[in-house]
Amino acid sequence: MVSQLVQQASKSKVNRKEIEKLCAELLANLEPEVTAALAGPIYAYFLRPSDLAVSEDPLLVRKHRYFDFYSPESQTNPESNFRPDSEGSGSYFSGGFATFALAAGSAASSRWRTGSPAATAVVGAEIAAIRSANWDRLEESDQRLVGLRIEVAREWIFESARLPEALRGLSLETMGLLSPTRRSELLNGIEVKDWRKIWDSITVPDLFALGSRYLDRFKTDPWSSPVTSTLRSVAAANEGSRLRILGAITYHAFGCAHPDLLHDAPYEVYERHLLPDEMAERSAEFKLFLAFRADGIGVDPKTLGDVAETLAAKAFLAARMTDFGDWRSQLAAYASITPNDLQQALNK
After folding, report:
1. Quick one: CA torsion of 171, 177, 181, 184, rounded to 10 degrees?
2. Of 152, 160, 69, 130, whose CA–CA distance to 307 is shortest?
3. What are the sequence ranges of the domains in the chain?
4. The 3-state secondary structure of the chain, one letter per residue
């Protein structure tokens, strides 16, 4: 075709229609190669050589179906999806790239072993959240902010047992953050000083969210503590915008295709949802647990991207979920990752 173009262009009387026809044919022949070349970096960012979909299929990128021409309801911009198939040409991705992270997470989850089949959906959502995080942007002050917010929230709960002002603030700030049942258990536990009941009613992500509300609630500290004063000092220099990296991809709830720390509804609200994907995205919060552990032993946050998947896989092995709505077992599995586990993973 290039030779034909050269011949047509070198003629004394140029046939413009013939040249346009040859150009269109040449572009049509180049299109598959150009498309694969443009899609390649996106596949490489969200997938790994160890993922079965990649290691077992050298033609995976070429099989991407951007539109389903066989469907009478083909969409202009369809959502990303992974189609596992052992027949014909095999598995493939379909749709655009806006939500490719979630589709890639679904594809990668096939090689992960879990303590329960009910954890399958959340594995994909967690992989997507981890691989979408730009870990290089995190700084030590961000990680310190995570740890301080959680510790201040714990102090706030403890001090509420003796300070009416702290208890009033806690009662107001936990509205909407915790479900009515868990909020009642928390406040009743504080009244009778039942600390086991108190700590069972609130999770690490809840504590993080509660700690972020402390400075807005109290312009001066109701009690004297080096933790609260350090939080004020760190928060004055760091507004926490980079912490969005530690969030989940809440596409179904908020239409968000990238990690973000949003003020979501309590887990109990999602128990009533019929689709496991919604609960999976809501509870894909392992990165927050990991940052908290890393702050405790002074690990450089930029190194967490190297071990996040390894430690998440270890956590899911311990997850004994009874169904996809068993978020308590899932968060308990996240919490089972110890500072020693993190240090060993970094040493490897």
Report:
1. -10
2. 130
3. 35-111, 134-242, 247-348
4. CHHHHHHHHHCCCCCHHHHHHHHHHHHHHHHHHHHHHHHHHHHHHHCCCCCHHHHCCCCCHHHCECCCCCCCCCCCCCCCEEECCCCCCCCEEECCCCCHHHHHHHHHHHHCCCCCHHHHHHHHHHHHHHHCCCHHHCCHHHHHHHHHHHHHHHHHHHHCCCCHHHHHHHHHHCECCECHHHHHHHHHHHHHCCHHHHHHCCCHHHHHHHHHHHHHHCCCCCCCCHHHHHHHHHHHHCCCHHHHHHCECCHHHHCCCCCECCCCCCHHHHHCCCCHHHHHHHCCCHHHHHHHHHHHHCCCHHHHHHHHHHHHHHHHHCCCCCCCCCHHHHHHHHHCCCHHHHHHHHHC
pLDDT value at 167 more than 70: yes
Summarize the confidence of residues 215-232 as an average pLDDT. 95
Tokens 């990680």 locate to: 143
Question: CA 48 → CA 57, 159, 301, distances in Å?
Answer: 13, 47, 21
**What is the per-residue pLDDT for 5?**
87
192 contact partners, CB below 8 Å, separation of at least 6: none
Mean pLDDT within 165-187: 97
